[in-house]
Amino acid sequence: MRPQPPPSEVTVERGRAVVLRWADGHLTELPLPALRRRCPCVACHDARAGGGVPVAERLDVAGAELVGAYGLALAWTDGHGDGVYSWEVLRSWCVCATCDPAAGGGAEAPAPT
Questions:
Q1: Domains along the chain?
Q2: Which of 49, 55, 56, 93 is most buried, by CB atoms within 10 Å?
Q3: Residues 78-108: pLDDT tens digits?
Q4: What are the distances in angstroms from CA 99 to CA 17, 53, 94, 105?
Q5: Which tens digits make up the pLDDT trace of 18-54?
Q6: Using CA atoms, how far apart are residues 3 and 87, in angstroms rounded to an integer?
Q7: CA-angle at 14, arms to 9 and 19, nearest 5°
């Protein structure tokens, strides 16, 4: 995966999604439940291997912090906050009709790899 420059704008739409506008003008909307299930931290990686990351019915972002030129750290209302999502990964998870015509702009990020 080639390095992805940081987005020009990051918006957390509480209770719904993280929206990223990239320097090329592309817009990526990532639903909060999909982001939480795909948290890149070691504990969540292990949980996915064991059947999945439990996601609270009422999920929200408690805090968000830019991590240099690398990515975005999210703290969740379920008390979790260890994952840092790289810009490359966030851009690759876009499921808009342009990035993934088969998805047709669906609301769910692809399955973890």
A1: 9-92 (3.30.2020.30)
A2: 93
A3: 999 999 999 999 999 999 999 887 766 555 5
A4: 18, 26, 6, 8
A5: 999 999 999 999 999 999 999 999 999 999 999 888 8
A6: 8
A7: 30
